[in-house]
Amino acid sequence: HFLVMPLSRLIPVVLAAWCGFAHSFSPKLHRRGVWLYPSKNGYGGSVKWPLHASSIDDNGGDDDDEKGLSDMSPFEKVQAWLKDPETQEDFKSYGTSLALALLLRFLVVEPRFIPSLSMYPTFDIGDQLAVEKVSHFVRPYSRNDVVVFTPPQSFIDLTGKTNYKKEALIKRIVATEGDSVEVKDRGTVYVNGVPQPEPFTFEKAFYDFGPVKVPPGCVLVLGDNRNHSLDGHIWGFLPVENVIGRAVFKYWPVWRAGPVESAVAVIEGA
Which of the residues are catalytic? Predict the structure, then answer.
């Protein structure tokens, strides 16, 4: 039932940051990878990749006065590399890209990994998706939105495991604040007395639930795999403050990639 984000999920962030080096492959930067090495007059010579004595060019002064790479200590090589203007430029570019990628990761969108079948067929085990965390400021969470959230206290009390606070769950909102919701007639969900179209579910629920009214500041969430999901019909309502963000796009595996069906799609298709 849990969404996890192992270190491998940071790969997109690292790749995005690495794009900061893309300019280094431009043809006009023909001195890419040039190392400066110490000579009698300072760091005036240069050594091109690969690093070997024969790669020393003619800019470094007299051969008798120059210090070749074979004579340099590892510390001197690193020091020379750090003094290279192109290296400094790359560090600035890389640092900027990494900072932007991390900013996006923690404030705007983050990757998540699906470890269970509680949301099948919308998500299968191993699916990876993007969760955006800012649109709720202008568009409140709605029915049929798929949301990622931290477990509420009622879930923790039910399971008896406090370490769940560090995990995240994913479910679909079926009712929002003030709605009256009921599951009856062989698994049909009724909101305010109206049966809801739910083409995204795996099968009808085998249980009856409600009627209940969603309290202020809360939503009711259920899994798309209704009969194999530990969700709101068992542990109750979800405080909106626990919601991390909306699941908006599946990007892995590629043959399942695409936008996540949301409230807008369901209403338009009804």
Answer: 118
